[in-house]
Amino acid sequence: MTAALDQIALFHPTSSPDYLPVDQLRQLQLQRLQQIVQHSYDNVPLFRKRMDERSLTPTDIHTLEDMKLLPFTVKTDLRDEYPLGLLAVPMKDVVRLHASSGTTGKPIVVAYNQDDLTTWAEVMTRTFAACGMHAGDVVQNAYGYGLFTGGLGVHYGIESLGATVVPISGGNTTRQVMLMKDFGTTVICCTPSYFLRIIDKANEMGLDLKDFPIRAGIFGAEPWTDSMRKRIEQLTDIKAYDIYGLSEIIGPGVGCQCSAQEGLHIFEDHFYPEIIDPETCQPLPDGTEGELVLTTLSKQAMPMLRYRTRDITTIYNEQCSCGRTIRRIERIGRRSDDMFIIRGVNVFPSQIETALLNVEGTLPHYQIILTKHNDLDQIEVQVEVTAEHFSDTIGSLERLRKKLSAAIAEIIGIRVNLRLVEPHTLQRSEGKAKRVIDNRNEANT
Amino acid sequence: MKIQQLSVFLENKPGQMAAVFDILGKSSVNIITMSTADTEQFGILRIITPEWEKAKTVLEKGQFVVNLTPVIAIQVPHKPGGLSSILALFQNQGINIEYMYAFPCAHTTEAVLIARFEDPCNVADVINATSDFKILSEADVFKEKKSCEIQS
């Protein structure tokens, strides 16, 4: 079963699973679903217990529709079963472990057997193919290497594609720029916020990425917006692709944009997507916004049944102009875990980002500071001034400030205190962007 | 006849101004004149210097946001009513001044008014066509300063 990947087959519409006729795809999904439910039931005590509680047996799954009978899995299940309670194969068959950083409580551990790694490399190869990459590309992988799935997941995908990988990992931004220039990097993989940091650093070094051979960026691991994509593309003359993944499912490689850049294709022959209402947990039809739930159809070491991602999106079932038949989801703009509530209103940082970007010429280096004053929530948005929208008159800066603050108020419905700050004063991330600083509890104590 | 003014964005907090002039001093940039505009949150520092190119480079390297702004330097009599006469001209011509600042030349009867207009070229044309006021070139302004220094 550990057949070497046939890259040629993965690229061609006649043989890549991306282009399977829909009825064949559904048939394959059902067959895999039945196998994975049986495998999970037989080998994972938690899944067995939950199915028994519902008087459900694996043989009750007759159609893909029957998926809704299965119990959900949530992030805390992985914490509660720390480290390897959800393992579905003998430990001797596990060839790789990854873990989340575990900033809140115990980390989340995920395991892979050899077949899982092959699947992972396959979906990453299909990701890169969709983004127009090929053998001969020099790919700088600035995702963090180590326990985080981003670095190694992307790494083996690049090797499997036959491209050249530069395993630089995250951080050391000056060296990132230097190697990008000296190695003639054609594609970079990192978080979008880190790429903005790289653009900044190149400018500081007196270099313009437009003069570099780089032509594409594979960005993920944090929510970002389509306007930010256009901004990156404008600043650097590259194509900026959004990829989607999460460790609990496999890591990067769950879905990606294609050349059409209209939503992200989910590799649904391996990861079955559903949308549910996060309140009622009822499945919603394609085209309706809700929480994304994923079921791994082929992963053996640690299968996930109906894993609640907390990512809010919509499934598109119309066929994409690129010809792929696998369904797409809308770019993840909101995650329930970066949402904050201010004066009773739910606000997502991405909403503020959209507002900032809608006002012409604003680079998204910003930070949201939440404080409490006389028991009332206060929100301040700090935005770094850049040379391109700095003018020599107070009036024009005040106009910019008002415009930004009005754009935010229009989207979130709350007035914010908008502060223009000097460049490079906001905390930069070498990995994920820290957009929200919540000091409300501190102020009260 | 426009001259280049450096405009620097500053947050309104202690030490920001010192940081700018520390950089300029260490780079041996001499300042002809300057002014500041401030609000509660931020300010703008405006600088006239012959070495504006170098000043811009070193300030940007120090991670300040710097813009070059075209302003006009006009020679005005350094005596009571000197400024008023040019302002009367602007008033008559319906010209709006965005902001202005001035420096006198010690031991001479002249002062230099630095002013910012929305359309500097048009203003220069109007001044030349309707008055005897002299619009100074970059060389004039910097020479003016030098002659001040020599005499003082």
TrEMBL record, chain A:
Catalytic reactions of this protein: 2-phenylacetate + ATP + CoA = phenylacetyl-CoA + AMP + diphosphate
A molecular function GO annotation: phenylacetate-CoA ligase activity
GO BP field: phenylacetate catabolic process
Enzyme Commission number, as recorded: 6.2.1.30
Domain AMP-dependent synthetase/ligase: 88-294
The keyword Ligase is assigned to this record: yes
The UniProt record lists the keyword Ligase: yes
Keywords linked to the UniProt accession: Ligase, Nucleotide-binding
Record pathway: Aromatic compound metabolism; phenylacetate degradation
UniProt subunit comment: Monomer.
Protein name, entry field: Phenylacetate-coenzyme A ligase
Organism name: Poriferisphaera corsica
Gene field: paaK
From TrEMBL, chain B:
One Pfam family matching this protein: ACT_8
InterPro entries: ACT-like_dom_sf, ACT_dom, ACT_dom_pair
Domain of life: Bacteria
Domain called ACT: residue spans: 5-73
Protein name: Acetolactate synthase 3 regulatory subunit
